[in-house]
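User: Hi! I'm a student and our assignment asks us to look at how structure tokens line up with a sequence. Could you show me two examples?

Assistant: Happy to help. In each example below, the sequence comes first and the structure tokens follow. Example one:
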Amino acid sequence: MDTQDLEGKETSEHRAASSDSRYTRIAKAAGIATAGSAAIAFLVAASVAPQTSPLSHSLAFSSSAAAAEAVSPSAASMPSFADLVAKVKPAVVSIYVRSEETTPLTSWSGSENGNGNNNDSQNGTFQFFFGPFGKQQFSFPNAQQSPHIVRAQGSGFFITGDGYLVTNNHVVKNAKEVKVKTTTGETYKAKVIGTDPKTDLALLKVSASKDFPHVSFAPSMPRVGDWVVAMGNPFGLGGTVTAGIVSAQGRDIGSGPYDDYLQIDAPVNSGNSGGPSFNLNGQVVGINTAIYTPSGGSVGIAFDIPSTTAKSVIDALKTNGKVTRGWIGVTIQPVTDDIAASMGMKNASGALVDEPQPGSPAAKAGLKSGDVIARFNGETVKDSRDLARKVASVAPGQTVKLAVIHKGEERTLDLVTGTYPADKVALNGDSGSATPAFGMTLAPSDDVAGAQAKGVVVVGVNPTGVASEKGVQQGDVITAVGNKSVTQPQDVQSAIHEAQSEGKSAILMHLKTADGGRFVALPLKQG
């Protein structure tokens, strides 16, 4: 390379360096602290003003820098949650649980830092159980070996000064010992006052001669777009704060019959379960319960139990130690557009009655198959799930008014709610039980979305049990046992006990399966 070329190169480099320095100053003036290249400065300028000529380039750089400096928001205008956090953080605790569980003979291992129920959905996972150390497992009924100790961690928060605190049911499930640790490092033993698996809530109590910092539930639902601040014990790190907004309301993630979750985008991870999410007034708007994740960590989709749901459940647990829900006794389904059109309805809303159960409150009130429940106590019924939530919110023994569309005409019925029956019966031959170890868990078809028929649904099957050997599968519906129709798990048990008392060696069950109907004979004398 000759001298002229070197001089030309040095000149070019000098110009480039000078230009780069100028662009860096412009980028800094525009508020881009890390901008160090002409390319970045050019993009900043180009985004503010169009370039039409070399002259306009230089003008655009100058004007864009000034404009960026003029419109750039100052740090002081951004929201700070520091005062809010200082106010409410002392009420938030870390929860450590020692529980005893049995080792399943057959299990499915999933992501770590969990112990429970994972539902795959669209290549992601709904994770409901956060915090236990070790691998995640699906346990099959009656597939047991020896008990083992599981240590778990979660979050919670005080709601009264005398030591009542709230967390998730799945955090303290099967707990032998529960300890809570405050943000100041104090540790206390806690007693489980009551739990509600259907909403995944639990109420605990700490006894100590002091007044605990506490928070209250928000009286109403937040709006989509409102700020939320989530607190808890992610990955066992202790009191941690994250922020985001409410992304959606009324989410149904298939975790229970009363799903009505808030969706938030504040990062929530393993160990955050049971922790609160606050509004800017320092009120609890939701309880962190589940996340949607393809990786096991937060991807910005978390689900909270709304405060409006939590408050009523926690009040019931504090008063009675349990939640007693209303029941009307109908099999229902959503009203689709086609069904609405066929019935002359303007809108596809309400809950369509498939059939009222014999002797149920619905049957006594005069509900018929094909009726559409349009309003419940004056409130519009959006769909079948909305009706289930509304019914569950009413105490047993209360008189409610139903607006029903019957053969195209609306009529009003008075109905006295009953008590929600026991949900599930495990025919697993537990210690002291007279029921044979069939190895299956049952639930009423009313409680199982998508049940193929009216009866009792097999919701769990032990692959090493007798039922599995006879070809019974999860999702099958038992419609009759011993030639008697069944609608509740207790009906199945009663029929089995009756057959045993008569000295029979087997019991005949009729199943409705995906392939049709069939009979199965299960032996009563095993071993």
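Example two works the same way, sequence first and then tokens:
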Amino acid sequence: MTKEETTDAKRTMAMAIDRKSLARAAVILGGLAAGYFLVVALHRAEILINDYYLQILIWVGINVIMGVSLNLINGFTGQFSLGHAGFMAIGAYVAASMTKLMGMPFALALLAGGIAAAAGGLVVGIPTLRLAGDYLAIATLGFGEIIRVIILNLDVVGGPRGLPGIPAHTTFLWVYAIAAATVVVVRNLIWSRQGRALVAIREDETAAETMGVDTTRNKIMAFVVGAFFAGVAGGLYAHKITFIDPSQFDFMKSVEALVIIVLGGLGSITGTVMAAFVVTFLPEVLRAFADYRMIIYSLMLILMMLYRPRGLMGTAEFSFRQLGLADRRPVPDKGGQAVGRSDGPPPVLETRRVCMDFGGLRAVSDFNMTLRQGELVGLIGPNGAGKTTVFNMLTGLAEATSGRVYFMGEDITKRRPSEINDMGVARTFQNIRLFSNLSVLDNVRIAFRGERPYSMAEALLRAGRYSPQEDQIYRKSMEFLRLFGLEDRASEIASKLPYGAQRRLEMARALATRPKLLLLDEPAAGMNPQETQELLELIRWIHERFDLTVLLIEHDMNLVMKLCQRIIVLDYGLTIADGSPAEIVKNRRVIEAYLGEEAV
């Protein structure tokens, strides 16, 4: 294909994607407008929807905003937050103060409330998001209580007496429009490279870090966006009920939002919307059975746990694919070019007198190593020799107690895993660490980052560089899957792959970060002889095709001796040998410590 033909093909493909995008936008706007006017028409005609049900629909919309914003944090990012009511309280009080006390327009008040809540998300995010699990839940719960106590002591907003006389600005149109905007914005975020980073954090934070994902920054981003929409929901709530006091934003309000996302499905926007309807309408439906309401709730909960333990929708979503409006991205040409790096100065890794202590135990002692461009080096030794600890220090998962690690002349001893990966160091793990609940394709797409990646605003609006770069990421990801024999399994869930295919996928994902140095931690573990032979050929091919420096930990000495150009031997954290395979197999200290006499 000539250069002109290639350019014309790319232009045609871009135009097709743009037409799909315009068609999707038209469907979204048309559907939203039709839904709104249908509700309004039914209300005016008093068919199915009277004033009472219209008020319930307004509360449904507010719950949708609350649920979707919390699902971004809890469901998609995997952070267990119990302080969402605190963000809602900030938005409610700021918006109400601006309209009641300052006479500001409602739209500006809602925006100010959202921004103030986002600032609260930033404040709570920076110090607490290095926590995880129960510790994070306790920290966010404490934040919500702190906000409530602060409001209790602010006389300017009524303190414990509350703030009455708030203008009743919240209408069905306001709630409908903002709920729709929340769903669209969060959905666009999740279907972007930033969203894939959030889901990667949920699946395996350590693996995400080694793929170049700045986990702390991305978690803070999720908290800020989620808090913003919670603040807007609080503003709508205040201007609907027209009276607020601190007791309305207690722990149970956070639990209410949590119930919505658990019922709908952690990681499903569609499920959250459905659950918001259920949670809002169900008390009204059961009003005639008030004496038995808790029994009915309990039975429903038991049935949910038995038959839908992951919620109404699990992680499933409504997709434009069901309407034939999904992007039909072409599979790359079978004769693609090599996708590794071939330019730039030769990468060099050096360790100088590196030590690693765990309490009183020294796992690695005075470790010195130099890796030069294009070398394929083995790191061997008995179990407990410190091999994986060395890998962890090289990739930032552990910080050396003393000594220095240099990559291409730069000191990376105290660098974070994401920074080290950005510089060009990638790794696999002894125990495979895929993003198990994501597709094979998404596992690789998470690793790709463009030269000038599109911004958060472009992701939310699906504008600018978003479509071209997403198309490029798709094509490159499919090319990698083809190279590793996984192209036909791109849509499968990673955890469903056979063991050997999972190993290949982990290598493909590591190479998708375009490394200069690849660290392989026991890639043959658990493989039979045939799979091991295939792995040997694969590693040799990767080394040559991508012009990489490779450091390999492996216990299969047949593989190591056939594959490696040089071998380093550790024993109890000490380097006891460094040389060619022929030298190592005859080294008396290595034989005594690891190989045994039968290796001679």
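Here is something you could point out in your write-up. Residues 330-345 have pLDDT under 50 and may be disordered.
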